[in-house]
Model the fold of this input.
Amino acid sequence: MTGTAGGAAAPQRPDASGPTVADVLVLGGGPAGRALAAACAEAGLRTALADPAPERAWTATYCAWPEELPPHLPATTIATRPEAVAVLPGGGTRALGPYAVLDTAGLRAHLDARLAGVTVLPGRAAADDVRPDGHRYRVRLHVPGDRGGRIDGESSGTDDDGTSGGSSSGKGSSDTAPRNDATRVVDAALVVDATGAPSRLRPGPAGGTEQTAWGVVVDERAAAPMVRPGEAVFMDWRSPGPHRPGWTDWPTFLYAVPYGDGTVLLEETSLARRPGLPLPELRDRLTARLAAAGVTVPDGAPVERVRFPVDTPRGPRHPVGFGAATPLVHPATGFSVAPALGLAPRLAAELARYLPHDPAAATTAARRLLWPRSARAVHRLRRHGLRTVLEMPPDLVPDFFDAFFAGRSGRAFLTGRDDLTGTLAGMAGVFRAAPPAVRTRMLRSAAAFHPNGR
Done:
C-alpha cells in the first residue's frame, strides 16, 4: 500500500459491488490496532483495519517503561530515554530508573510501513453495527461525510482509534456523531475491538473514575525550574500553590517529560477521581504552579487535554478486546501502548492457528493469551490499589505516594501486567513504608477486597 506524504497509510476505497471479506477486522487505527492488524497480515490472515481518519497524523504523547517495549522496536520510534524521578511533597526526590518517550511520528511511520498486506478502510462502528452472522460477523462501518468525525476539544479517551489529539499517555479528543455518513459492510470471521477507552463498542458509565490532565509544551530552557536535563518527572507532589476559591481539595501533581527535540511537556495531573477533576481547574493549577516557579508560558504554546477512564473491568469475549479496550491501561499510569506493541505479534500468531475456520477457538485462544490467571490477578490488584487511593482522605494521598516511591519495589507495581509476585511485593513495600494513618486506610480497603472480582 502506498503511503501518503504525511506517512499515513492510504485507505483502500470502498467497493460498492459487495462487502469486504476478511479473516480479521480490527476496529480502531491507533497504535494497538495498527500493530495488531500488521501482525495479523504478516501471519497470513486476510486483515482489514477500520480507521475513522486513516490519513490523520497522531499528535498524542506516548511514554513507556523500557522493559515493557518490544526488544526489536526500531530506534526511530524512541524520542528520548530520560531517567524518571518522583518529587515528594517535601521536595525530596526518588529515582525511578529508565523511562522512554516514544517518537509519535516515528512510531506511526514504523507501523504504517507494515500495513502493505492490510485493507485499510475509513470508517468506525458502534455496538449495534457489529452483528453475528452464523459463525462470522457482519459489521457496518460508518464512513464520515464532509462534516463527520472528530472535532478539536476536550479529550475523552485513549487514542486507540487513531483520530485524536495529544496527551501524556495517548489520550484523545472529543467525539461527535458523523454527519452525512456513507456506510459499507465487512464480512469477518473475527472482530477485534481496538477502539480505545472507553470502548466505542461498550462505553463506560457516566461519572466513572477518570484520570484528567492539562498540559503545555514549552522550551526546555523555560522548563528548567521544573525538570533537569536528562530527567523526566513522573510525579511532582509539591503543592501547586495556595488553595484558591473554586479549587477542590483533591491533590494533583506535575508530570514533566522531555520530547528530545528541545521542548518539554509540563502537565498538571489528577491521577484518578470520580468523576474526573475538571480541566479548567487543572489549567488554573498548572498556571499557578508554573508562575510560582518563574516559568513563562509563551502565547500560543501547544496545549494537551487529557480525560480517560482508569477503572475499566475486563470486557466480554466478543468481540476480542485489544489495547486500551482490553483494557491494557494501567490505572496508575494510563500507559497501554507498550504492552499492546509487545502482545500484538503473539496474539496474531494465536489467531492464525484457528482462522478462518474456527473463530470460536480463536476467540478462546485470544482470551487465554491476553488474560492468563496471573494477568487477571494483577488486574484485580491494580484496580484494588486504585480504589484504595480513591477512598483515602485527600490530605493522605501525597503521603501514600511518598510510601509508594520509598523503595524500588514500587516500579514492579507500575510494570509487568502479569507479574503477580512483583505486584504483591510492591504493594507490601508501600504498606511497610506508609505512616500509620495511611496503613489504617490500606487495611480498611484490604478488608473489602474481593479477589474474584473482574
